[in-house]
Structure formats: C-alpha cells, structure tokens
Amino acid sequence: MRLSTRTEYAIDLLVALAKSDRKLSVKEMCTGTHMGPKYAEQIMRQLGAARLVQSIRGVKGGYLLARSPQKISLGEIIEVADGQIMPDKNGASKSFAYVNKRVRKELCSYVGGLSLDDIVRHA
Predict the structure, then answer these.
(1) How far is it, in rounded angstroms, from Cα 16 to Cα 34?
(2) Which pLDDT belongs to residue 90?
(3) Phi/psi at 62 (nearest 5 deg)?
(4) Parts of the chain with a pLDDT under 70
C-alpha cells in the first residue's frame, strides 16, 4: 500500500495542529514545508467536512483539532484524504480476492489503532 502525497500533507497539517496550543492559519501550518497554501486549504476543507478539524473564520481565524489527538486515527485521516484504505480488486481470482481481503482487514485494524497522538510522539 502506498500513501499519497495528499495523505502525507493531511498528516503533516494535523500534526502541526496537535503540537500547537492555539489555532493556526494555513500559512503557519505550511511554513517549513513544500506544501502550497491553496492545496493545504483544500485538504483542510476535507478534514473539516469530516469533523477532524474546526475552522474559525475571520481575520484572526484559523484551525483547531475538533477532537483530541488520541481520538483521531490514521485510518480516518487516510480515508478522508484518499478514500477507501485498500479498495477491492474486482475481477480478481478467488485466491487473490482472499489475500486482498485478509490484508485489507489487518491493514485497517492497524491504521485504525494508530492515533494522531502516536504519530505526534514519534514525529
């Protein structure tokens, strides 16, 4: 399984928020990264629609985590950024379909159990 750049950036944005004790603007979250603010804003809108972040409007607006980092899983982040974690392979042989199903189950279990807090502590 490969994680997309979109997922990588979503993780980076959420880690920045988790490490901060205040709201952050997209510009602040992008500082020191290769991420463009317009692309980051698109990702933040997705994260907001999924209720992972809270948007505060206005001149002094920004973003906050909507939940504690312990309650946001890597699985949620991947699904918001990229959709299904490991899609079914239609038309696959029975043996491959079985392998795909087992790998997807284990992978979903693993990323579902890894929290944003775990990521922050190792970042």
Answers:
(1) 14
(2) 65
(3) 165, -155
(4) 1, 88-92
Residue ranges and CATH numbers for the domains of the chain are 5-122 (1.10.10.10)
Helix (H), strand (E) at residue 55: strand 53-56
pLDDT in tens, 69-102: 999 999 999 999 998 777 766 666 888 888 888 8
Give φ, ψ of 32 to 5 degrees. 80, 10
pTM of the model: 0.89
Distance CA 35, CA 7 (A): 12
Torsion angle of alpha carbons 31, 55, 42, 17, nearest 10°?
40
In angstroms, what CA-CA distances link 102 with 82, 106, 107? 20, 6, 9
Residue of 100, 72, 95, 57 whose CA lies nearest to 13: 72
Pairing mode of beta strands 53-56, 62-65: antiparallel
Tokens of 90: 């239609």
